[in-house]
Specification:
Elements lengths: L1 H19 L2 H10 L5 E2 H5 L6 H13 L3 E6 L2 E6 L1 H30 L1
Antiparallel strand pairs: 1-3, 2-3
Length: 112
């Protein structure tokens, strides 16, 4: 039962890990972790990345459920959806527990 739940959890979080696998998208998520919603202009300030490129990266992150956009008049602002990061963290913790258990079994076997 536990392995099945872990597989289901990993299947659900795979798009999150795929989206975070790009350095630009990871940087965008880090910028949005500050807490406030940011515009495309704010997210591109001080970088060589075009607004169009950032928009495409944000759409990938939105498809993975990591960010969402909010309209402020004519401006779109983007904010982090922390629940998906929490799911990904829980998946990584489950993998870490499995590794710890496997290493403990190996240690017991080797020492026994």
């Amino acid at each position: 039962m536990r392995k099945t739940r872990t597989r289901i959890s990993l299947h659900k979080t795979a798009p999150v890990f795929a989206a975070l696998g790009d350095p630009t998208r990871l940087r965008l998520v880090a910028a949005l972790c500050a807490g406030s919603a940011l515009s495309i202009a704010q997210l591109t300030a001080g970088t060589a990345i075009t607004r169009q490129a950032v928009t495409k990266h944000l759409e990938v992150l939105a498809d993975a459920g990591l960010v969402r956009d909010i309209r402020h008049g004519r401006e779109r602002r983007w904010e982090l959806e922390p629940s998906k990061l929490d799911e990904a963290r829980r998946s990584l913790e489950a993998i870490a527990r499995q590794w710890d258990q496997a290493l403990a079994r190996l240690k017991k076997f080797v020492e026994g």
